[in-house]
Amino acid sequence: xxxxxxxxxxxxxxxxxxxxxxxxxxxxxxxxxxxxxxxxxxxxxxxxxxxxxxxxxxxxxxxxxxxxxxxxxxxxxxxxxxxxxxxxxxxxxxxxxxxxxxxxxxxxxxxxxxxxxxxxxx
Length: 122
Description:
With 122 residues, this protein is mainly α. Helix content is 70%, strand content 5%. It is built from four helices and two strands. It has helices at residues 9-33, 38-60, 67-96, 115-121; strands at residues 101-103, 109-111. The protein has a two-stranded antiparallel ribbon. Helix 2 packs across helix 3 (67-96). The mean pLDDT is 90.
């Protein structure tokens, strides 16, 4: 038993990070694609965390009602879900508002040059 994983590092990496992380990324992506508020992602990731905790309990004899590992799993899945949400939102903002924003990285965008002057005069 470790601080981050209960039943083994393999279970943590495969079940939580790979399978749960993939589901969390797609959940964040779906929330961004449908323009849902960010709190909806927090709720969906919590439900996903409960499912992952149940799979850890049912398949690998983990503790079902462990608050410590529930919080750890939630934080890991939330970080991946937020990354998926932000990555998708960056693509949306720079594609749908191409005249206003430009992409500065996979998770960030900014106003195009000259656009700040137009809105400052307003």
